[in-house]
Amino acid sequence: MTDLSTNSTVDTQSGDAQFADYFALLKPRVMTLVVFTAFVGLLAAPVAVHPFIGFCAVLFIAVGGGASGALNMWWDADIDQVMKRTAKRPIPAGRVDKGEALAIGLALSAFSCVFLGLATNWLAGGLLAFTIFFYVVIYTMWLKRSTPQNIVIGGAAGAFPPMIGWAAATGQIGIESMLMFCLTFMWTPPHFWALALFMRSDYDDAGVPMLTVTHGRRSTRVHILVYTILLAALAVGTAFTSIGGPVYLAVALVLNAMFLHGAWSIYRRDENASEADNFKAERSFFKLSLLYLFAHFGAILLEAGLTKFGYGGW
């Protein structure tokens, strides 16, 4: 197993970089989730926001999420060049220099936090700054390489966007935004552990202490099932709060039944089964997890719209 416990230098020479390479530094797929959950937090808030202010808020939150991605790629370049899933990223592929990624990440971080604060309020700007710090320093630089609980604690970074959106609208951190935070926070471990199950060799080769590497596949499957049960209770219970309602409840019941079935199927997986069978079940669960979060936040958004027209809630 390759020892990459310290951040080694990745030799790259930029010059062939295209716009798409610099955009890839921002992790656009991850940014999509950040933007959507922040947008839901903004619109679910019980305060009307001017469309232009709302657009600016979501834009600056997206830029902050992209800044986090660039700084993550800068620090993790040594890991990325070992893992098959990330070897073609701009830095390990040699299209973008590490120094460029660092400069872009720092510049976009400062820009996004300051302008979000100016456009909305400084609580929102401060939350965005803390989110970037948490993802880059606490998760990427510390937790990811030091503990199998990396994704559990580090998952908080991906759970902050709806809180930031809510704060941008209200200037406060409400119980409702904390529920959206908890929903994302509890969803993150089973989502990433499913990925780790069918990409274990990547993390093993890179020396990243994911649960699959340190405790094995069986323990990881148990953890997925436990977190999924806790997540289902939280998700269904949210239906009976001010951000829930009958539409959300219907979505939550269906999605959580599917998610629990998937987690149970993974838990019951025969350790002697073929890798192809394991890969299929775990990959299906991972794909379902993507739909799971988008559908729940979409239902929260729909309930918010119905409530504003006098049709939502209980």
What's the layout of helices and strands?
Elements (H helix, E strand, L loop, with lengths): L18 H6 L3 H17 L6 H25 L1 H4 L17 H22 L2 H21 L7 H5 L1 H4 L1 H10 L4 H24 L1 H7 L4 H4 L1 H22 L8 H22 L7 H34 L6
Tally of DSSP β-strands: 0
Question: Largest sheet at a glance?
Answer: none
Number of domains: 2
Look at the structure and name the CATH superfamily of the largest domain.
Answer: UbiA prenyltransferase
Succession of helices and strands: HHHHHHHHHHHHHHH
Mean pLDDT figure:
90
Which radius of gyration do the C-alpha atoms yield? Answer: 20 Å
The proportion of residues in beta strands is under 5%
Percent in helix = over 70%
Tell me the name of the CATH class of the largest domain: Mainly Alpha
In DSSP terms (H or I, runs of 4 or more residues), the helix count works out at 15
Structural class: mainly alpha
* Uncertain residue segments: 1-9
What does this structure look like?
- The protein is mostly helical and 314 residues long.
- It has two domains: 155 residues, Tetracycline Repressor, domain 2; 140 residues.
- 72% of the residues lie in helices and 0% in strands.
- Helix 9 packs antiparallel against helix 10.
- The N terminus is likely disordered.
- Keywords: Cell membrane, Heme biosynthesis, Membrane, Transferase, Transmembrane, Transmembrane helix.
- One of its GO terms (biological process) is heme O biosynthetic process.
